[in-house]
Amino acid sequence: MKKKVLATVLTFSMVISSLVGCGSAANSGTTTTDTQTKTETTATTTNDSGSEQKAETAAEPAKELTGIDAIIAEAEGMTMEELAKKAIEESNGKTFYGVGNSSRGKSALPVFIEYLQSIDPSYNMEFEWQQPKNNKIFEQLTSDSLKSEGTFAMTLIQDGNQIQSKMVDTDILKTFIPKEWAEANGTTADAYTGFLPLQTLNKVFMYNNQGTVSFSNCWDFVYEGSHPLFMGVDSEIVGKNFLMMLTEDKYATWLKEAYDKLDDTKKAYFEPTIKEMQADANDLGLGANGAYALAWIKLWVNSYNEQTDDGPICNTLVDASAKDQAGLLVYSKLRSVEESATVSVNNINVAAYQDGYTGIGGYGYCHYLFLTKNSPLPWTACAFIAYMTCTEKGFEAWGKDMGGYSANPNVAQEIEATFHHSQGGGDEFPAKNDRGYDWWTTTGELVLEDPAYCSEVSFTVGSWIDVLDHYTPGE
Question: Is residue 467 classed as helix, strand or coil in its secondary structure?
Fold first, then answer.
């Protein structure tokens, strides 16, 4: 019966996918590259994002930009100081409303106001920052977009899949590329066609080292008897994006290469599932190693122990009593561990840091910055976005944590010089010595979210994931 349900879902999904995104997968050539900037550059090459509209306008000079698009186009040619003066003129004495997935926007706004006051001491602006729960940010922004003038000036938002389909393709959110950010990344606003990332966050595989079980390969996390702690695809949608990304050719190949390095006993355990997945991989139009990706995904969903948040996962793993337990969680959670006789960062290993570890080390996803299409304070929003992405002080609210990497290489360098994340734990707590974005996305084999790819396969691979059985503790 379950096979019939799955076949029905797959058939329906393939039909819908072909109707909604006809030709998108075939024509996009979307790949996830090894650099943060290039990863996001590919994000909207096959859709109608705001940045693409600007590129098309450049090719058709007769088409005149209006409204928010005209403001963004002008702002993209201005320096930080020029934007600041525009913001002062626009918002002095007013209230700025922002909305985001990260509460730290509330921490960044007072620092931004202080910067504007350094230019004009008489400047004053009130602000309110909202952080909707349960992924309601998309509904809130959609509702606000229906007004002639919106409430929210800008947003900091995650989940590339829904951003692509619900916010950018619908023209609710607009991309602004600061001049200094583009220059730092060796490009221009006109040439850049993706979303603007504030930072990449990483979730990494960790395991308690007080037992006897060895996790030396990413397939060990889905081996018999393993039940890693994970927020789950229903608790945090970026986790589902991670699983969908595994079917992209690059990451499916990483999984195949890791499988090839397993011993014969473990290969024999996984081989039946891989063979079983070959038909589904063909039906879903995946590449040569797609069956390996589907097998890993199926075994992961069948086995992970779903938790409500990464904080409790971290608290469990660092306790000496959690022998042989593993998890996939935000790396920065290690910062808050309070050492005691039974609790220590030294009770866990970051899997990818261990000599001889093979395969994916975790996944990375971005916080993106956008203006709303009906922003009431567009110049101030542009200045605030530029301040967060182009200055160390503006990014510091996020940069103080390891595992969060600015998309501006200049800012990333300044943050490291200030906080020394590469030696965050020193010799005492080596797990806290962050090896950095470049290491994680190469040697560490971090799987990077690509909004365009996730959007393309959400009806197919995403629907396939939705019908997989979940592990229930005690059963």
Answer: coil
3-state secondary structure of 233: coil
Distance CA 454, CA 17 (A): 12
CB of 154 within 8 A of CB of 384?
Answer: yes
368 and 196 Cβ atoms separated by less than 8 Å: yes
Tens digits of per-residue pLDDT, 395-448?
Answer: 999 999 999 999 999 999 999 999 999 999 999 999 999 999 999 999 999 999
Q: Write out the DSSP string of 191-227.
A: T--S-EEEEEEEEEEEEE-SSS----BGGGGGSTT--
Between strands 154-157 and 362-372, the pairing is: antiparallel
Could you give the CA distance from residue 414 to residue 63 in angstroms, rounded to a whole number?
A: 40
Backbone angles phi, psi at 429, to 5 degrees: -130, 75
- Entry pTM: 0.86
Q: Residue 152 and residue 131: Cα distance in Å, rounded?
A: 12
Is the confidence at residue 376, as pLDDT, over 90?
Answer: yes
Q: What is the pLDDT of residue 235?
A: 75
For 174, phi then psi, to 5°, come to: -120, 135
CA–CA dist 431, 118 (Å, integer): 40
Tokens for 286, please give them.
């995946």
Cα distances (angstroms) measured from residue 163 to each of 39, 169, 208, 360, 451: 15, 8, 35, 25, 8
Using CA atoms, how far apart are residues 117 and 129, in angstroms rounded to an integer? Answer: 20
Question: Mean pLDDT, to the nearest integer, of 259-263?
Answer: 98
Containing 7, the helix (H) or strand (E) segment is helix 2-20
pLDDT value at residue 475: 64
Residue type, 123: Y
Please classify residue 13 by burial: count the beta carbons closer than 10 Å to its beta carbon, then call 0-12 exposed, 13-18 middle and 19+ buried. Answer: buried
Q: Which of 245, 240, 275, 135 is nearest to 463 (CA)?
A: 240
Of the chain, the percentage scoring pLDDT greater than 90 comes to: 81
Q: For the chain, what percentages of helix, strand and coil (3-state, to nearest 5) are there? A: 50, 15, 35
Banded pLDDT at 75 (limits 50, 70, 90): very high
Indicate the helix (H) or strand (E) that contains 367: strand 362-372
> Residues 6 or more apart from 201 whose CB is under 8 A from it?
330, 332, 364, 365, 366, 367, 403, 404, 405
Find tokens 């931004």 and name the residue.
112
Closest CA to 109 of 88, 85, 83, 127: 127
